Automatic annotation (TrEMBL):
PROSITE patterns: MSP (PS50202). It holds the Pfam family Motile_Sperm. Residues 1-115 form the MSP domain. This is MSP domain-containing protein. Gene3D superfamilies: Immunoglobulins (2.60.40.10). It comes from the Eukaryota. It comes from Caenorhabditis briggsae. InterPro entries: Ig-like_fold, MSP_dom, PapD-like_sf, Sperm-specific_class_P.
Amino acid sequence: MGVELSLDPPVCPIQANGGTSKHKIINHCDKMLAYKVKSSNNSNYSVNTIYGLIQIGFTADLIITRKPGKPQADRLIIQFASVEQTCRDPEASFATGQPVGELCGETIIKLSAAE
């Protein structure tokens, strides 16, 4: 296993008084991936999509939005699982609470809002 999925840019520079940050989720492997985005702080952070599919070698847009609030050490976790090319339901790979597939893992993005 190498780097199957990454985020570009890999950091989220949002101020504590709120704002948005645009990123690309990149599929680096030879399988289609289903993904799920989880946050350690749903009170302050939200994303434009929680579940999605990324074809081999493609990207998906991720927009992270922060509401004003006290800065703390938060993070986003992007879980992923390989799926068949015919898959159209990314949520099915996470029905048990953990990613299920031949290739599974997660990428963590640190969210450190500056005042």
